[in-house]
Amino acid sequence: MSRPQDPHRPFFPFANPFKMMLPKGSYLSPRLLELLNNFEDALAERFRKLKPKDREEVLSLSWMTLAMELLCQTHTDIKSIITKLELPVCDWDDKWIDLYLDNTVKLLDICIAFSSELSRLNQGHVLLHCALHNLDASPSNQFVKACSSLDGWRHHISSKNRRLENCFGILDNLTETLNLPKVKKSAKGKVLMRAMYGVKVVTVFVCSIFAAAFSGSANRLVDLQVLESCLWAESFVDVQTYVNGEIRNIFSSGRVTVLKELEAVDTSVKKLYPTIQDGVGPIEVEALQNCTSDLGKRADMLSQGLDLLAKQVDGFFRIVLTGRDALLCNLRVDGGVPDPMREADNVEGRVVR
Questions:
Q1: What is the four-CA torsion angle of 102, 121, 316, 234, rounded to 10 degrees?
Q2: Which residues of the chain carry a pLDDT beneath 50?
Q3: Which one of 121, 157, 235, 308 has the minimum C-beta count within 10 Å?
Q4: Is 80 inside a domain boundary?
């Protein structure tokens, strides 16, 4: 006899952290309230901007680039809030610092995995370029080489990147730590923790989508339930419902590739391959030229899209790294900690360029 499905667990399984963080009757000065509201209003607008106007935009490289750009802006905002709060590091609770440092290491690892995958996908452009070069050479004996290059490309894009395997475990851990540390008697600390909550929500959301798209699996796509009192909650739920729903539809269709520009190239390859494999007669030359031209255009769009997205991922990496360095430098002034620049060099050295 089958068991009834367990109800969906609420996001906060034990307690609402904001009952501790912003308890009823807690007071925030007008300045602090304005600072928090401005941050949350900006985050709400970013979620609205992130909702695609058309379902075809979902998992396009241009949309993913926008998502990473908005994520970078949000992480830049939290650095600005920390500055405006004028909350010295010596006033930070040890739990905040430990959590922040632990989470930033995880984000850097995710960035390294994403950069590795984007680099791997872009390497396939060399195989496409070789195929196109051989097709332009005209003699039919070059078709064999073109077929070989296209075979190599299809094998390359269908292979798996082991660097992505750890992303889902990291995202699970980041999701668990959304339940924030308790804040005692510090209005500034409460503002900081609530703002960081928003940053972590958008981070988990965007990185979850990237991990699903790059790994080819929507099974671990994250569906977050967030605190309704946040000014960005409604717009977040709206975009999460729409985007995650569309991604699951894409995966359920059985597509080999889910990135839109990658899928477009794959479609051109599938159309071109049988033609050059069977040989081209005089009547089919024009059709071959059209197919080759179409593949060339789509391959260029894919390569350009991957380059732009890679730059945004690299920018996110550097924002997280510089924020971490700033905190470590301040801690080093207060007490002995490892040299942050040496640590930065070690982390950067792991990035796949």
A1: -90
A2: 1-25, 336-345, 348-353
A3: 308
A4: yes
Burial code (b: 16+ CB inside 10 Å, e: under 16) for 158-182 equals eeebebbeebbebbeebbeebebbe
Secondary structure element (H or E) that encloses residue 295, with its range: helix 285-334
* Number of compact structural domains in the chain: 1
Closest CA to 12 of 169, 209, 228, 189: 228
Is 221 within the bounds of a domain? yes
Domain assignment of residue 261, yes or no: yes
One-letter amino acid at 271 equals K
Q: What ranges in 59-186 are assigned the alpha helix state H?
A: 61-85, 94-136, 142-158, 167-176
CB 270 within 8 Å of CB 147: no
Tell whether 28 is covered by a domain.
Answer: no
Domain that holds residue 243: 34-309
Exposure b/e, 217-238, CB count within 10 A at least 16 = b: ebeebbebebbeebbbbebbbe
Question: Tens digit of pLDDT for each residue in 140-187?
Answer: 667 888 899 999 999 999 898 989 988 999 999 999 888 755 666 678
